[in-house]
Specification:
This protein is α/β, with parallel strands linked by helices. The protein is built from ten helices and twelve strands. Helix 1 packs across helix 2, helix 2 runs parallel beside helix 6 and helix 7 packs across helix 9.
């Protein structure tokens, strides 16, 4: 069995299973408190969640995953897309692994779905793109805590168009059994006030499903985000902002911050 081992356990999040589960549960608890009555909203078909170290983005991730947890009983599969940070990727990089592991256990890959996605010319098997990539990995402990057992369809997204991502999503869209997760942070390394303004503009583009309004400064995962926005339009979904903060609000200084957003699509 080919297992993609965790690359950022002990750096982005705790390497000890008990400590990791406790940390995720704390973020979910504060997320539920932040949601309040919004937790009664319809089950999200898709979400956007941040992917920094948990000390920075964990509270925002907790908000969106608390929303998933409130309505997650039907979910059996997660289509997970995030930007490729470590390896240059043309198109979308799939994985030949049988499972992705975290300290909480191994998540099986939906091998049939991965195989079927390869019919798209923009999808290639590139395990080296996944080996050290954090954008997908940091979502898994939250998904494991919230969903329990599920299958994963992971893609590291590189040089692609929004339309190419949307095309792949369309094939994998499924019904209530499939959750689409796009992993993305927002603005990077601006001062607090500038970042807050940029992130408000990005949030407005996401909420209005306007992929064309996303620029290089909007989000590191703007390509998969844009693909999701196109797919959401096609399926008549509405985007709701559940959280919008940055590292200056959570655990870092305010001279150079990274923005984080939590968005639900239903």
């Amino acid at each position: 069995m080919r297992i993609r081992q965790p690359a950022v356990a002990g750096t982005f999040y705790p390497a000890d299973a008990a400590a990791l589960a406790a940390a995720v549960e704390r973020f979910l608890t504060t997320g539920r408190q932040r949601l309040g009555r919004a937790a009664d909203a319809p089950a999200p078909k898709a979400i956007i969640a941040p992917h920094a170290g948990y000390v920075y983005s964990g509270p925002i991730a907790g908000t969106i995953y608390a929303a998933v947890q409130a309505r997650c009983s039907a979910i059996e599969r997660v289509v997970l897309l995030g930007p490729a940070h470590r390896v240059r990727v043309d198109g979308l990089a799939a994985s030949d692994a049988d499972a992705f592991a975290t300290p909480l256990g191994a998540v099986p890959i939906d091998r049939v779905a991965v195989h079927d996605s390869l019919r798209h010319s923009q999808v290639h098997v590139r395990d080296e793109a996944h080996a050290a990539e954090h954008s997908l990995e940091v979502q898994l402990p939250f998904l494991q805590q919230v969903l329990g057992d599920f299958e994963l369809v992971p893609f590291a997204v590189g040089a692609a168009t929004h339309a190419e991502v949307a095309e792949v999503l369309e094939d994998l869209w499924g019904g209530a059994e499939t959750l689409v997760v796009v992993s993305s942070d927002l603005s990077h390394y601006y001062d607090y006030a500038t970042a807050a303004e940029l992130d408000r503009d990005t949030a407005a583009a996401i909420e209005s499903l306007h992929a064309e309004r996303l620029g290089p400064e909007s989000a590191c995962g703007r390509i998969p985000v844009g693909g999701l926005l196109i797919a959401a339009q096609r399926h008549g979904l509405h985007a709701t902002r559940l959280d919008l903060r940055n590292s200056g609000d959570t655990a870092g200084p305010r001279d150079e911050v990274v923005g984080y957003g939590a968005f639900a699509f239903a």
